[in-house]
Amino acid sequence: MQGSTGQIRQGNWCKPVPESVETSHESKVTILWNQEMKTDRTLPNNKLDIIIHDNETATCLLIDIAISGDIN
Fold first, then answer.
1. Whole-prediction pTM value?
2. Which residue has the higher pLDDT, 36 or 5?
3. Between 16 and 65, whose confidence is greater?
4. What is the mean pLDDT of residues 63-71?
5. Is the pLDDT of residue 15 over 80?
6. DSSP labels for the chain?
7. How far is the C-alpha of 32 from the C-alpha of 16, rounded, in Å?
8. CA distances from 67 to 17, 64, 70 (A)
9. Measured between alpha carbons, how far is 43 from 2 in angstroms, rounded to an integer?
């Protein structure tokens, strides 16, 4: 099922499923979500949450989100 914004929705209509790769209209910025990153050694957690690649300056912004599980 597709919503009015063009995103594919599965099961519950209020929870859209984002695409794993999105590109801006002018192809200036590419946003990657939940993608593996190649490293020189084996890492157990090599999937970053968000990678923003600026195609004009050839730079990347790596975003890893963590939520602590502190229980008082």
1. 0.60
2. 36
3. 65
4. 79
5. no
6. -B-TTS-BB-SSTTSB---SEEE-TTSSEEEEEEEE---SS--S--EEEEEEEETTTTEEEEE---------
7. 16
8. 21, 10, 9
9. 36
pLDDT band at 57 (very low <50, low <70, confident <90, very high): very high
Burial class (CB in 10 A: 0-12, 13-18, 19+), 2: exposed
Q: Angle 53-40-48 (CA atoms, 0-180°, nearest 5)?
A: 40
At residue 1 the predicted structure's pLDDT band, cuts being 50, 70 and 90, is: very low
Distance between CA atoms of 18 and 2, rounded to whole angstroms?
12
Token readout for 9 is: 């929705």
| Count of CA atoms in the C-beta half-sphere (13 A) of 57 | 6
